[in-house]
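quick one before i forget lol
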Amino acid sequence: MELTTVWFLIVGVLLIGYFVLDGFDFGVGISLPFLGKDDTDRRVLINTIGPVWDLNETWLIVAGASLFAAFPEWYATMFSGFYLALLLILVALILRGVSFEYRHQGKGQKWTRWFDQFIFWGSVLPPVLWGVAFANLVQGVPIRTVETGGWIYEGTLLTLLNPYGLLGGICMLLLVFNHGLVFVSLKTVGEIRDRARALAKKVGIATIVVGAAFLVWTIIMHMGSDTILLIVVCAAIAAVALIAAWVANAAGREGWAFAGNAVAIAFALLAIFMALFPNLMHSSLGAAESMSIEGAASSQKTLELMTWVAAICLPLVLAYQAWTYWIFRKRLSREMIPAAAH
């Protein structure tokens, strides 16, 4: 297998890791107004992800750095063309991170409510925009080659807000919301756990319906492509895992439900990457304008050096993250929140 293909897969794995791990962070943030009956409930919800949310976001940083180093043309074209959407994601992530750190400063209820709103909207906006972006990469965006080399994006933010793109955004939002609710039920006890399981049943049904519609649309769009079999297999695994997760949640098996949701997100994204392959960006202006993996990749020497670095560092990162989750594996309850906490 060529190193260009290897790094296409590595970037894909890093992005999958980000959406699986930071995905439940987003879901917990979205759940605040639905599960948080009072400030103590909201403190419990935030504390479920308190030790790990910033560690989960490092997957996005590593994925972005790998994309920049391995596929600079992809990085340049996508970040310049999607700059407004990516700026909104960045602002939302900053507001969410700041809110986790400052909402408990005890400046009064109005202060706390403002930061709770930042956490909520900072958790809603990124998955929606990420879903829209990935859906448009699969569908095709108006990019063309330029004489000086590289590609240029000729659309706007509104170009991305088409029916398929919006469906992708809604699908991603529901996936992470459902993922977060199951995580809350896995990490808490008592009434919060019961409310999270009950809400996950309802959200899970909507997620299955919307997810099925998005995957079927994706399959129909790429009928006849060289990777259609892989797309269908990945989509089928994602669908089965999502349904199995709903059944497990209904049966009170939160661990299995969480694992099922993680598999569903992973294989749904794999289906998207298989729909992209062997391109990085499909062009709606014609197949000849599409960005291929080989055309956007760095030099062979750069990819070789990056491969050695990844082989050494990635296992260490995975081991450290696994250790962190093990240390903070205990379930939380309202009784663990001090009465004076804000």
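fyi The chain has one domain: 27-336.
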